Amino acid sequence: MLPILLALAFIxxxxxxxxxxxSDNFIVTRxxxxxxxxxxxxxxxxxxxxxxxxxxxxxxxxxxxxxFSGAESGVGAAMAWDGNGKVGTGKMTITASQPxxxxxxxxEFQKPMQATNTAEFTFRPAGNQTVVTWSMQGKNSHMGKIxxxxxxxxxxxxxxxxxxxxxxxxxxxx
Length: 174
What we know:
Structural class: alpha+beta
Helix content: 25-40%
Mean pLDDT: 88
Low-confidence stretches: none
CATH topology: Alpha-D-Glucose-1,6-Bisphosphate, Chain A, domain 4
Shape: elongated
Radius of gyration: 19 Å
Strand content: 35-45%
Distance between the termini: 69 Å
CATH class: Alpha Beta
Strand order of the largest sheet: 1-7-6-5-4-3-2
Largest sheet: 7 strands, antiparallel
CATH architecture: 2-Layer Sandwich
C-alpha cells in the first residue's frame, strides 16, 4: 500500500510542477501576405458587422447570435456573441484603430472559460502587397495552465487564425 501512495504523491508533485512551470503569459500570432493594398483589407476587420464574411468562428457556428453596440466601426465598436461549445460566449471591442495600419481589440470570454485578452491586427505594406498579422495575447490563469497541459493553445487558436486570414485574403483579393 505504501508504494502506491508514494507513487501517487510523486505523480501529484510532478503534475504540480508541470502546471506551475507553465508560462504566466501566452501569445498566438499568424501572418499572411495579401495581393491587395492595406486600405482594401482594413475595412473588413474594422467593421465588426463584416466579420461574418471571413471569421473562422462564424463558420464553426453559423447559428451563433451576435449583437452589436457602440460605434458602427472603429474605436468603440463592439460585438457580443453567444454560440455553441465551439465558439462560446463573449464580447470584443475595438479599443484602437489607425486606418490601414492597425486595430486593437479587447476580448472578453465568458464561456467555456472566463478570460480577458487582447488581439491585434497589423497591416504592413510590402510593395504591391500587404502583410497582415493577427495576434492575441493574455495571461494564463491557473485553469489556463491546466488546460495548456492538455491542449496546445498556439495550435488550437493559431489554426483558426490561419483559416480566418485565408478567408479574409480570398475576400479582399477579388
